[in-house]
């Protein structure tokens, strides 16, 4: 296991028990069995480590949801959306629990900005899904419906995060599909005002330029051993710098990296850049 990954996993164990503020760098290094010097070779500070953990969780979650919405046909789109969301909550339950219980004052401006950007990314994915599913039916109510869907995700995720009873993910997803369809077909009153829609529709405050994507890819390449995913990343980086490949080849390279845990965010950014559906 790479040292950076070890630090993130061991730090998460301590954060889950004690919270961000109560956990010191010394406690993290003791728990990892490494020196402070080794810690600071990977992270400049505890705040940078926390940002890395939030990035990891939110990038995985956002990329998984976006891939499902982009890849699935309308027939099972909503079911797969909910199933993937709750599967991700379950997979990353320790960190999700930590975010739920951590007091807001623990988050600095950078963390708030990142969480805001990820939330806006998720909103855009949900709005895209609503438009695909309901067409003109959703024209005036899609923003209200998107908030309802996010509410379902947040509320029902508590079943995974606060209770230890087994959850039938298939039944839960089917139930929420039914509820969402009922809302979409029967809502008549718009609540979200035009002024708020203008704010929601503003572009993300995030650098998604080719240079930034290359930076993300290079970091992934550096952290990976030789594999088909690594070779695919190298080719995709070259395509960003000097476009030459047929779109079908680019799509194939993206499919090679899509499910690798270290490459999901790179795949998400590349799909947006190359406009791959």
UniProtKB/TrEMBL annotation:
Gene3D superfamilies: Tetracycline Repressor, domain 2
Domain HTH tetR-type: 1-61
Protein name stated in the entry: TetR/AcrR family transcriptional regulator
PANTHER family linked: ACREF/ENVCD OPERON REPRESSOR-RELATED, TRANSCRIPTIONAL REGULATOR, TETR FAMILY
Any one Pfam family match given in the protein's UniProt record, by short name: TetR_N
Keyword tags: DNA-binding
PROSITE patterns: HTH_TETR_2
The entry's DNA-binding region: 24-43
Matching InterPro entries: Homeodomain-like_sf (IPR009057), HTH-type_Tx_Regulator (IPR050624), HTH_TetR (IPR001647)
